[in-house]
Amino acid sequence: MHSEVVASRSADQRDSSRESRNGTPTLDAVSLAIIQQLQEDGRRPYAAIGKAVGLSEAAVRQRVQKLLDQGVMQIVAVTDPLTVGFRRQAMVGVNVEGDVESIADALTGMSEVEYVVMAAGSFDILAEIVCEDDDHLLDVINKRIRALPGVRSTESFVYLKLKKQTYMWGTR
Amino acid sequence: MHSEVVASRSADQRDSSRESRNGTPTLDAVSLAIIQQLQEDGRRPYAAIGKAVGLSEAAVRQRVQKLLDQGVMQIVAVTDPLTVGFRRQAMVGVNVEGDVESIADALTGMSEVEYVVMAAGSFDILAEIVCEDDDHLLDVINKRIRALPGVRSTESFVYLKLKKQTYMWGTR
DNA sequence: CACCACTTCTGCGAAATCCGCAAGGTTCGA
DNA sequence: TCGAACCTTGCGGATTTCGCAGAAGTGGTG
Questions:
Q1: In the complex, which nucleotide's C1' lies nearest to the CA atom of residue A66?
Q2: Is residue B93 part of a domain?
Q3: Tell me: the pLDDT tens digits for A108-121?
């Protein structure tokens, strides 16, 4: 009647939190389905989720709590920064000599930096910066990032228009 | 006792949804405070938010509903893609000849593309791609993106390690 | 100033949800 | 066989959500 995701809960998809090789918990199909529900609506009631994934309300509650505790997922409000008063954003590509990770850590510590990723290619690090205005952006890039010892060069891409921003992993 | 954000709701911060010049709604201090609460916990009850921002439960509910309807904010579960089974991610810089926006729209239509932004600098568009494995990633970049008419060239930055990912705009 | 249209906030029941808890079943692995 | 982990069912009580009616403030107009 109502689309069940799981028919039989047989051996190959039962464990919801075993540790895999790299230390991150492995997710089974049911937890994935729960996350999917919460990606559509973070406030969806547990009973509705349970009906959708084929679990009781209590079980969903336990799983969600565990997923949150483990840090696998978080339920948050996300906004378009422009609407909230941050008018200048940029992606900054950084080239590093020496220890890349320590530079990445330094960037991570800056509150204006929303996103830091170590990458392969012509940049060692990509960092997204969210600022209130041009002065602020300039300050962060030139005075703070370029000033870090070990930063060889940077290249900035100022955002003109945000076209897409999704959080629908697994919903494909 | 409990920190009130707003003391007097006087003229200069009353409107919660007026249209500003560029068409995006302007937010007042109260809505900002509500968003802030929901960035800490997307499931926080309306009454608790109301207490924190100095509004009744019903008022908070109405404002949240409006913010959601307007698309100013969404309440969702966010995860680390790696944990959910997407092992390859990349940022792709795209150079375009002709209409940049139509290319951006095409990218937006691809489910593997999580993030699309039009930028100034040596790339016209930056797009973040989330894939299950190398084959998938290769396919998206070479067969689908490069195949778009108007795409002059692309450059890929494969993610090695995600260091930071925040959703705390306004919480500074 | 009076009046109207509009929006927002408040207050209040009724319904739904959340939450903790307990008892019992199943499966898996030590 | 035992323990651990997980799920289910069921249950109340506390909390939250939800819809609605009424009050209050704003802006525009004559």
A1: D6
A2: yes
A3: 999 999 999 999 99
